[in-house]
Amino acid sequence: RKEVEQDPGPFNVPEGATVAFNCTYSNSASQSFFWYRQDCRKEPKLLMSVYSSGNEDGRFTAQLNRASQYISLLIRDSKLSDSATYLCVVNRFSGNTPLVFGKGTRLSVIA
Amino acid sequence: DAGVTQSPTHLIKTRGQQVTLRCSPISGHKSVSWYQQVLGQGPQFIFQYYEKEERGRGNFPDRFSARQFPNYSSELNVNALLLGDSALYLCASRDGTGNEKLFFGSGTQLSVL
Tell me: the pLDDT tens digits for A14-35? Predict the structure, then answer.
């Protein structure tokens, strides 16, 4: 079993739709959680950190359920510019230690 | 301020050859990590260096090696290239103070023929 598993995708949604991505992680001791965004042929960039209390950044909402070892990302009112691959990322420890990336879920927002 | 810079951007090699990839972190960042991203997969951790010392190594064969220089730049070396080494090689830096945010360079696309 992979350490971080994501919905296989791809997700093809119309503009304005709400889309949710799910992710599970296998190491219950994992400390920190993130969503990164990667545009085609570009480097990954941090979208947002994920906290147990849940957090929101504009149209994006991230949730963490430590008991279920489950992370989610909700995108409301999808824009064409949201088309990208979304990577679920886990840090087994905290601080300056390696990050573990999921395979990524590709989103295409269609006009 | 310049971000993480990597060179070269693209590289074509043949099986059995050796390759050296270079990375300069963001100014002030002391921690550099290398990741391999095969098409259709997420980045996979190869090495992490902090203050010129190896701080972590992923599940890669000994053909892969790296080092960090006094100015915190880094090189990744891969010997005896295999077709399966074809991938995007990403370098990322952090300030090393505990801030977990990784800043990635735009990568080196390596093709092994």
Answer: 999 999 999 999 998 888 999 9
Question: Quick check: A104 and B56 CB within 8 A?
Answer: no
> Dihedral (C-alpha) B9, B11, B16, B17: value to the nearest 10 degrees?
-80
Are the beta carbons of B100 and A32 separated by less than 8 Å? yes
The Cα–Cα gap between B5 and B73 comes to 10
Size of interface A-B (CB pairs under 8 A): 55
Residues 6+ apart with CB under 8 A from B28: B95
Task: Give the tokens for residue A90.
Answer: 């886990």
How far apart are alpha carbons B104 and B87 in whole angstroms?
Answer: 16
Asked whether the beta carbons of residue A98 and residue B107 sit closer than 8 angstroms, the reply is no
CA neighbor of B104 nearest in space, from B11, B16, B13, B24:
B24
